[in-house]
Amino acid sequence: MRKPETIERLYLDFDGFFASVMQQAFPALRGHPVGVIPFETDKAKYTTVIACSKEAKAQGVQNVMRTPDAQALCPDIVLVMQRPDLFRRAHNALLNEISCEIPIDTAKSIDELTCKLGKRDIVDPQGLAARLKKRIAENVGPHITCSIGFAANRLLAKLACKMDKPNGVTIWEPEGALQYLSALPLSEISGIGGRMEKRLNNAGIYTTAQLTATQPKQMRALWGNVNGERMWYGLHGYDIQAQPTGRGMYGHGRVLPPELRKLDKARDTARLLLTKAARRMRRDFFYANKLWLWLDLREGGWFGQRDLPCVNDDQAILAALSHLWDKAAFELPRRHEIVRAGVTLLDLMPADGRQLDLFLNDDRDRQRWERITFSIDALNRKFGKRVVSVGPWKPPPGGYAGGKIAYTRIPSAEDFW
Fold first, then answer.
1. What's the topology of domain 184-244?
2. Prediction pTM value
3. What would the 3-class secondary structure string for the chain be?
């Protein structure tokens, strides 16, 4: 395994991305503490600040904080509804500008990316960082800033990136990497969550210095898999490449506004989310063998699943959802409040490797529904919006259902139709 003798990786993280994009797009928000929320502002007391600006953070507001708590800390915070379509366009514009200076290796999320350094950039990382920041400020906008970390590998560059936020540049040369790491608490190491930290504490490891003093096989045993050993080599500056991952599921979840938190009111939202998940699945040429429906209640939750005969058409998938919805109606208490609803299509099968159940092979009716569904998809693609759907199409308040920006997924334009 190769151990680089110099920096080879850049990791870039946009500062307060959602809030800074809103400030760049809407001048009236600039210089003010901003909190981005999922619903319109008259529902603010029921929701959460999902992202906040540096001005709000300076007053103690944090991402994923209840709006009443955020307003108590920062009475003048300006609450604005999320704009996933705007965030997606900003992401694409920023990647375009960065790729003019250096090829992008991987976009890790909507606001993080990593690059491999060329010889010129290894010699002058500060110059590269200055060029990137200047290009972003001049061609996208000065209110969107980024923090940049340089190190021998991706993991160390990501950790370095966190050291001088916001708008900082941090360079960890290989010979000093372990010394830089020793100043970080375990919770700051990417890949160490709360449960993993407790496991390490139980093994007598309380600091990052103690963690890096272990051996690879010991780390593997602590993690219970090869990821622990990979972590050890990453922290010690070896060139560790990310393992390829395959698609495991398609799904969407949605926090419901107060007026939709009863089962009969939430059904249309669940249908819409499932239809959008199925469209994504078809675009990637997959079929599903199972459907999950999950409902987060104010107290507890409900979960149901139903097997599918390797299908991807809307009629078959929505019929399965209807069955699960009837089951939920029978099992849920009379007094319930559904805070969040979600659907997941899983047990995927690539279209070119599809295998059908001996007793549930495609019949004429199933083939007809597949043709109808593919025709609907073609019409929607042709006109660049939703023009046809199977059954009702009632977006919930706030819009953008199915266009959520998850950590590992950046929506496409089709997700907003």
1. DNA polymerase; domain 1 (1.10.150)
2. 0.80
3. CCCCCCCCEEEEEECCHHHHHHHHHCHHHCCCCEEEECCCHHHHHHCEECEECHHHHCCCCCCCEEHHHHHHHCCCCEEEECCHHHHHHHHHHHHHHHHCCCCCCEEEECCEEEEECCHHHHHCHHHHHHHHHHHHHHHCCCCCCEEEEEECCHHHHHHHHCCCCCCCEEECCHHHHHHHHHCCCHHHCCCCCHHHHHHHHHCCCCCHHHHHCCCHHHHHHHHCCHHHHHHHHHHCCCCCCCCCCCCCEEEEEEECCHHHCCHHHHHHHHHHHHHHHHHHHHHCCEEEEEEEEEEEECCCEEEEEEEEEEECCHHHHHHHHHHHHHHHHHHCCCCCCEEEEEEEEEEEEEHHHCCCCCCCCCCHHHHHHHHHHHHHHHHHHHHCCCCCCCCCCCCCCCCCCCCCCECCECCCHHHHC
